[in-house]
Each structure stands twice: as C-alpha cells, then as structure tokens.
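quick one before i forget lol
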Amino acid sequence: MGFIFSKSMNENMKNQQEFMLMNARLQLERQLMMQNEMRERQMAIQIAWSREFLKYFGTFFGIAAISLTAGAIKRKRPAFLFPLIPLSFVLTYQYDLGYGTLLQRMKGEAENILETEKSTLQLPKGMITFESLEKSRREQSKFFIDK
C-alpha cells in the first residue's frame, strides 16, 4: 500500500514540476514579448520625433537659405552662404533618420558589432552578481547588522 501511495506522489510531483516549468517558460516568453513591444514603441517614438523635428528644421533651413542667398546677392559677398553648409548636413541627417535608411544601416552596424566585437561590450569587472550587490549594499548601509 505504501508503494502505491509513493508512486502516486511521484507522479503528482512530476506533473507539478512539468506544470511549473511550462508556467515559467510561458512567463519568460511573455516578458520577452513585452520587452520587444516596448522597444518597438520607443523606436517608433524616436522616428516620429525625428520626422517632426525635420518639419521644423526644414522650415528654418528654407528661410535661412532664402535670407542668406538674398543677403549674399544684395551685398555681393558669397561668405553669407557658408552657414548653409553645416545646416545642410543637419538637414540631411534628420531626413535620413526620419525617412531614409539610416536606421537600417545602424541596425546592420549594431549586428556587426555584436558578432565581431563582443569584447567591447563587456562590462568592467564582468557581470553583476548577487554577491557583489550584497557587498555594495552592506558597505553603504549604516544600519546593517550581520547575524
């Protein structure tokens, strides 16, 4: 009779462990999906910000270009056109970020760094561990009593 009871307990324990493993996996998958969704939303906000900034900066650049060109023609001094050079670089960058392929190129470069330059991404002193956190917490705590 003890053997039957023990066998039943072992099966229940095995079923419970499988359920816990499945539940942990499901929770991890949900967390990963949520983190990816948050990342996508943040990137969408970044692109939208860039496009909005481009509208305002494009207007400023257009007014500045017309004004500086008119001033250069009126005063016969082409030096008035020099500020347009750095402004055009900013305008081109913002356009490329908002509507061009800059994000795809940045993604490709990031993938290349992850594949070929892994050592540059390592944290100083390695990964943070529970022990190192506890040590720092104990050093900073004024009221810590070691039992």
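fyi The longest helix spans residues 2-75.
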